[in-house]
Amino acid sequence: MSAIQEVVTEAPAVEAVPKRAMTLGYGTSLAMLLVLILVPLFVKNFVIFQLTMLLIYALAVLALNILTGGSGQFSLGQSAFYAVGAYTSAILMEHADINYALTLPVAGLVCFIFGFLFGQPALRLSGVYLALATFALATAMPQLLKLGVFEKWTGGVQGLVVTKPDAPFGLPMSQDMWLYYFTLAVSIAIYIFSVNLLKSRSGRAFMAIRDNEIAASAMGIDVALYKTLAFGVSAGITGVAGGLGAIAVQFVAPDGYTITLAISLFLGMVVGGVGWLPGSIVGSAFIIFVPNIAEGISKGLSGAVFGVLLFLVIFLVPHGARQVAVVAQHWLGKLKNG
Amino acid sequence: MTQAQSAQSESPLLAVCNVSVVFGGIVALNGVSFDMYQGQILGLIGPNGAGKTTLFNCLSRLYQPSKGDILMEGRSILKRPPHRIAEIGIGRTFQNVALFANLSVLDNVRVGTHARTNSDIISDSLKLPWVRRSETELNKRVHEILGYLDLGDVAHLTVSGLPFGTQKRVELARALAADPKILLLDEPAGGLNHEEVYALGDLIRRIRDERRMTVLLVEHHMGLVMSIADHVVALNFGKKLAEGTPAQVQADPDVIKAYLGSKDQ
């Protein structure tokens, strides 16, 4: 077998790169967690609210990342799942008087089923065609929510007002701060589950399908099942994010969940780095804060400034936050060694 | 050889019975039959367009034969969807390497064990104890195979940047990970240099002997087929031309005619 060994030694894998991790190291994760825990203690309630939205959108971006980065399926319809999750939570809280925390798993489950079912016809589509089909879903959703048939529950065009929960056990914190920590706990749990999922047999099946469907099928992977499961999981997480969003904003209305939201989430995924889960929070920060920054630079031309900023990001770091992280890691390594 | 001959008395592991495949008006395969026995290396040869790949794709259920049947251990495989072929012990490699380009060598081989393992998305997300145990077991197995094929050094690299020869070995490792009974190799020598082809020949024989596998080898490289196959089936224009030992097939006038052409053509 010496010839085989020679093949390995003679032709070293010059271009092959070590597989980049999907997650952060323990140290970085802990530092990040510490920042997320401490920051709210030093800022105003409005900023805490914004941070809550940051986490919520990060969850929605993460969900899209599992779908696109994981299983290679595009979706411009995430706003539809977000809306279903938001309405499920709102309706359960306002009409059935169910505790806000308990409405989230229901929202997740409803959206999982919705996503799984939507995944069935979507199986026949791929690439841009799938993106268009999901686009149709996102466009249809606000109008479906306005339908007279559902008005009794959805509140029609008016939407529903949701009461913000107080901190439990008489904890001395504002509603905003409590909701922030609640959202943080949910987000961390979902992040850990997602990382586990992508590193498991199911996650490998998603990625195998993304890279080569025929080979995946020859390895015994039920391509149809895993593709629809990816849709289901993605929709489920988006649904939980939607539910949290409804509680944080204290209001659901059809026009809050238009295609613009779906495109924002897509943007967040690209900025964060497709397939890199920790990038989701960076992507989320981009879609929440950059429009504000753009408005700060020029009120009248905020859209144009946002466009320029987005263009710069995509031009300078096409792989998003992941690329920045890799470069930073490289420099840190150099500093340590030299 | 002796191994293969002694096996002849047993029932075949894989039986291709009178298989025909028609695409529109074109008959790609016309009533092809042959048997494969445990421990055999069967070489399937034929000029371009002879129907080798068509037959191969019937075995991996990408094509549905219009007539005939394919029996694995006496049971028809034709009712199984493509993703349920791996679980009955048929593994394959692809002609132009179909790896999962963005995954590491390790993960590629791990995916190979999919048909031999179980899990569901909830247990996987929660990383339940049984999932951990099954992953530990799986990793042991995968590392054993990587060591077997000298891929240990590249285990953590993404496959897309590896040299072609190495990628072919990764594909082989991925197929072995499912511990198949039959290994279908679609032109494994394609794109390899002279030394690599002979190393590959040794390797295929070694896999057959040490891992007790049966190999179906579809190959253009006559030297490779003739040196390692126990039994050769020659196809031309979708029909079986000849069948027998490498020497018998090489001496067959029809095979010579198909490869070299005859005077009256």
Task: Tell me what the structure shows.
- The complex is a heterodimer of chains A (338) and B (265).
- With 338 residues, chain A is mainly α.
- Chain A has a single domain (3-337), classed as ABC transporter involved in vitamin B12 uptake, BtuC, CATH 1.10.3470.
- Chain A is 73% helix and 1% strand.
- Chain A is built from 15 helices and 2 strands.
- Chain A has a two-stranded antiparallel ribbon.
- The radius of gyration of chain A is 21 Å and the shape is globular.
- Chain A starts with a helix and ends with a helix.
- With 265 residues, chain B is of the alpha/beta class.
- Chain B is 38% helix and 22% strand.
- Chain B is built from 10 helices and 10 strands.
- In chain B, the strands form 2 sheets. Chain B has a 6-stranded mixed beta sheet with strand order 6-7-8-3-9-10, with helices on both faces.
- In chain B, helix 5 (129-148) packs across helix 6 and helix 7 (194-211) runs parallel beside helix 8 (222-228).
- The longest helix of chain B is centred in the middle third of the chain and has 20 residues, at 129-148.
- The two termini of chain B are 37 Å apart.
Euclidean distance between termini CA atoms of chain B: 37 Å
Strand content of chain B: 15-25%
DSSP summary: helix tally of chain A? 15
Number of discrete helical segments of chain B: 10
Portion in beta strands of chain A = under 5%
Structural class, from secondary structure content of chain A? mainly alpha
**Which residues of chain B sit in consecutive blocks of at least 5 with pLDDT less than 50?**
1-7
Outline of chain B, from the CA principal axes?
globular
Chains forming the largest contact:
A-B, 42 and 63 residues
Q: Runs of chain A with pLDDT <50, length 5+?
A: 1-15
CATH architecture name of chain A: Orthogonal Bundle
**Elements of chain A, N to C (H/E):** HHHHHHHEHHHHEHHHH
> In angstroms, what separates the terminal alpha carbons of chain A?
41 Å
